[in-house]
Amino acid sequence: MGRTRRPSSQMLRLLEALSVRPQHWRHGYDLMKETGLLSGTLYPLLMRMTDQGLVEAEWREPEQLGRPARHAYRLTANGIALARDAAPARFNRLGKPALA
Predict the structure, then answer these.
(1) Pairing between strand 70-75 and 55-60?
(2) Nearest-CA neighbor of 35 among 53, 56, 9, 59?
(3) pTM score > 0.90 for this model?
(4) CA 40 to CA 95: how far, in whole Å?
(5) Percent of the chain clearing pLDDT 70 (strictly above)
(6) Angle, to 10 degrees, between the axis of helix 9-19 and the axis of helix 77-94?
(7) CB within 8 Å of 73: residues ≥ 6 apart
(8) Residue 38 neighbours by CB distance under 10 Å
């Protein structure tokens, strides 16, 4: 029987940021600014969450000519469910509203 681990505080911050608009594609740099996570934490976390089926990633063509393509991320249905399950305990403890 497998053990279910609670999401880390870093994962909770990332889930919170992504769950505000779960169908919206987000770039890593924007997520770094919003969550305060450093790139050495954020990108490995995004890769693990992608491997776990919580986040989907895709290459996005640049909006400006001459800029490189970038990865974009958004929650999957499993990621949205985890965000909703994990957030109430964290949010209620901090006195903030839980995710709808």
Answers:
(1) antiparallel
(2) 9
(3) no
(4) 30
(5) 82
(6) 110
(7) 18, 25, 26, 27, 28, 31, 46, 50, 55, 56, 57
(8) 10
